[in-house]
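ok so i was messing around last nite and threw this chain in just to see what happens. nothing serious, just curious
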Amino acid sequence: MRIAFLVNSIEGEMAYYTTTWLALAALGRGHEVCYVTPGDFVLRQDNSLLIRAITLNGSKPKKPETLLNALKRERAKISTIDIREVQVLFLRNDPSEDAERRPWAVYAGTNFGRLAAAAGVIVVNDPDGLALAQNKLYFQGFPDIVRPTTLISRSIEEIRAFIEDHPDGVILKPLQGSGGKNVFKIRSKEEANLNQIFEAASGAGYLIAQNYLTEATAGDIRLFLMNGRPLERDGVYAAFRRIPAQGDVRSNLHASGTAEPATITPQILSVAEKLRPKLMDDGMFLVGLDIVGDIVLEVNVFTPGGFPEIAAMHGVDFSEDVVIALEDKLRVRTLYGGALSNHALATL
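result:
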């Protein structure tokens, strides 16, 4: 099986990225791996879709650093591959990273992903589902009971009124964003620098204001779902608690947060179950939920991370489970001779 990973850029990939660990797991199970970026698709005049892919040229690195060094060292050695020579296209780019600097790249994964799926490639997460999730407005499609109270607006007057209605405080963040960038806690509408915060956070467009959950001071729990259900092996869940640094409202690991073991309770599993129907309906193969109590703060469908942290805590590398699931999908696709849609295969 050949797996192509779509990422924002080769230079930006890191050893601690879950994508890197997924690639290593695939290599470890005897598969071929290649990387593509949003600018590496080619649609020729005969409607054939090709990718200008970076491959490892037969090498089988076993460590994240070795893998990335090989990719970056061989950056100029690009092979042009017909997409039909790829069995799985794994969309692992973050569109919000490109929204400001390279807006043309935002929809490359979903647009070309659709063409790849039409050519018979298994594309995960399903590109039609991802197209619905290009920003946090997607979250509003889940049941009210699992979501914080939310306002979406670019009006500072509307946001001031929302803040006044929530004396415990409000979290303000961009509608299009990730990684904890421009996330602020507002304590009251009289906050002295509210105008400056508004300007900083609204630079990329609409804002989300959500009621602050006091339990969030202890962090949130990142729980992975695969094929719509909690990812688990031998009683260990693919999950961890993300603890914000003192004085910071953000628990993102790459924005000063730290990772600790998490206890997955029946309450948390019940929350995940409430999201399952829509995630299945949208073809979301691998998802990361950020949960506080019985409320979901984020549904991460593009590049949820945390496998290396989970492996360090529990000695379980869930990357292998993901690759095995992809192998199963390929067997089913072969068995049915292409009769099943990519949408169905994505969460089968």
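not much to say yet. The chain has eleven helices and 19 strands.
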